Amino acid sequence: MKRRDFIQTTCKYALLCASPIALTALQSCEDVDEYKGDGTAIPVDPPTDGDGSSDGSDDIPGGDGTYIKFDTSTSDFQSLNVIGGSIVTGSNAADPNGFLLYRSSDTTINAFSRKCTHAGSSIGAFVNGVSTCPNHRAQFNISGNVVGGPARSSLKKYNTSFSDNILKVFYTES
Question: How many CB atoms lie within 10 A of CB 52?
Answer without folding.
Answer: 10
